Give the backbone structure.
Amino acid sequence: MDQISGLPEAILHDILARLSDRDSARTSVLSKAWRETWFKFPILSICSTQFFRSQDVTVDNYIKLDKVIDYVGRKSLKLRVLGIVIKEFKLMMDYVDHKYMAHRVDLWMKMAIESGGEVLHLQLRIPGGYEWRLSPDRCYELPLSVIESKSLTKLVLMGGIRVEQAFLTHSIKLYSLRIIKLYKLLFAHEGIIEHLISHCPLIEDLTVIDCAVYNPPINGIPPVFAFSPVKSLFLHGLHKLKKAYVQGMQEVYIDAPNLESFRNFIHPYASFKLNLDSCTNLRWLCLWNLRSIDLGDKWFLELFSKSPFLESLELNNCSMSQRINISSAQLKVLKLSYCSNLEEVNIDARNLLSFAYEGNHPPGLSFQKSSNQLEVNGFSIVDFRDLCSLRKFVQNIKPQRILASVSLFICPSVLIKPEQGALQVSSIPPTIKRLELEFSPKNEAHYFPFMNYLLSSCCPNSISLSFRSYVHSKAFIEFLYEILMGRKEGKCHCSSSNTKCWWHALKIVKVICTFKIDENADFETMLDALPTCYADENIGFILELYSTD
């Protein structure tokens, strides 16, 4: 017997708990001892994709579906006979036949709840996508026993699940519940969500995403159900709530004095009202698609006044004023992504550590007060139709000392054929900390216009190529190396002026990489060792100019 198999059962269960569901299940075939350990493991997790694909199950062939049923039955019975509490019950499966499966899922749910389990995760996918909306009866009806559990600390309900009106009047005993996540559920009444959450006194983490209400069917054959999104959420007296994520609501009111993190996503162009006035302890706020209100100076002034401890603010795809002023002594992280209309941002935040902007038309940035640890990150795409946009963004960052902390990330984009001729510049562009390429052209004809565009917009102290989400070609990296070493010529600014492009005055070009390689290896060896697939690796160039003094 190996040494691990001889460890105490509690330690073996802890090892299994740290593995993925698939890997922990695989340990059951290692030996008889591991099989026994697996059957006594108090976490019962079932994912139907490990047994079958929904298209494989037909009315005349339930063999693969029966394998799931048999497996759950045998393991749950084993735990029950041994008197072992099922601490976690996770069921993630294609709900292929509601008539065949409903009573079995009911039985499993009852078994998990009555055993005193702490975690219940039910995720059902109805084959055919949203076709189930033609009839809520195809969804699994959540049993009332779920809200009678005094031991549950975490409840996750996702997908094809229907919650009936009886939940409005039934006694709720979720006294220990701390985490609740409701994702794309169908409710018979809009008030069920509020009623359920308000009876969970210890709730700390709340997620409600794209839930809907169904109305009684209109007369007809077949009956047609009317659906509408749950439009509002009004929550009062949630003194333990620390984290909330709400998506798809048009009006949200939360009374939670200890709320620290709030994320809200509304669907584009929908009207929206948000009231977090009582959430005076808010630390992190992330908002998406706010278009119904004017995000101007008044909004920001009220935000920081009502949330004096706010440290992180993210605004994504929001409609803004042309000019905004942000003043906060506590703000440490600020991120603006694809915010329309925005032309100027003035920031007075002496403790700000990170600012990021992502978008095609970056605004002018002015930092009135800033920490000496501030990092400024700009995420941009290459647009040959507007050659001055990137350079303009860098030049419009004030004061100039901030440039030493600026990093530009070049994101994937569609490169149209560049116009003939060079990007004309009259001086060396601003010097920044770093230029990271998360994308590079595949077409060799675009290599020089691409780099000419970038190196005429900024003068980075280093250039790195990331392989996290894109595999750069060996040919492009070799081209970049040769142009920086002065071995490659092209139609740059030098071809039309006596002024040399700044990269022709490089004193030192040092190549570095994060992947394993001999420290004395030459550039060709590095090229041969390049990653051939996505990897958390980089290859970079450290640049140093000759002194202009």
Notes: Residues 97 and 199 are 33 Å apart (CA to CA). Residues 374-417+424-485+499-548 form one domain. Confidence is low (pLDDT under 50) at residues 54-60.
